[in-house]
Amino acid sequence: MGDESLEETASTPGRGGSKRTAIIVVVLVAALVAVGIGTWFALSRPAGTGRTDVVRLDKHRVMVDNSMNLYDPLVKQFTGRYSNAISEKAGQPEEEKVLSLDRERIVRESQANRARLEHMAESPALQDQKLAESFNRFKDQYGAVIAYNDQLLVNTANIYRSVGGPCASLHSSLNVASESYAQDYVKNADECLAALGTAKDGADAETTTLLTEVESVIRGQRDKQQEVLNSKEPLERLSKSTLAAVALLDINEAFGKAQTNYETATKDKYTKIIESANSSNTEFEGVLKTSLEQFDAASGEGK
Question: Which of 15, 39, 81, 124 fits a 20 to 30 Å CA distance from 267?
Fold first, then answer.
């Protein structure tokens, strides 16, 4: 009586043994949880997706983002050189030479950026749905920046070829005091209007609006000068000439308004495009960072 059997003794662990068992259980549970998380993350990843793919994709993201900064100096260089060729009347061969060389630089940059985006689209990392969705937004928005700069090249060339070309002489070279002023104005205005019409080809909506507003001003003044030419009597001719001269005083204000409207519209358009691109880049960068953190956590590198 009072003696414990061998079985009872073995089945009743001491206090020290209880502590060891508790520690082992806690460690085991922690290990199982860690393994479970790692296993879940590994299983949730599409086959073929690796950390290296995500790192490489992020590097290409940075390259594309940085390359956008190259457009401004290229466009400014083109604008300066081309406007000089036009204003100095260097002749069409020289104008085309400048246009061809500088345009080629911008075209090459755009081609390189599009190639980078297409290369990124082939990344195995994009098997991950969140990465794929974020990348698609990034690609669309940066594609819009590339397209904007390509279009800017067309717009700039078309404006300088018309407003800075045949139209410029209307209010800079013609002698207002000359007896042939009305005739000279009509002749030059017709050349200007033809150039403005051609300049609309390939231009975007904002540039087309600018050219149309300039066209309206020139056509109105041209019609007034035509009325001078059509006058039969000296007194009538003098009256029409005076009215045309008065209208000419307001022409700079009309041009200034058209220019201001154009600058405002293009600035708003550019700002929205850049803001959207920056937003998509920030989002894409964040999704890539989260993906890398998950890889590191699964491998234990994040500890």
Answer: 81
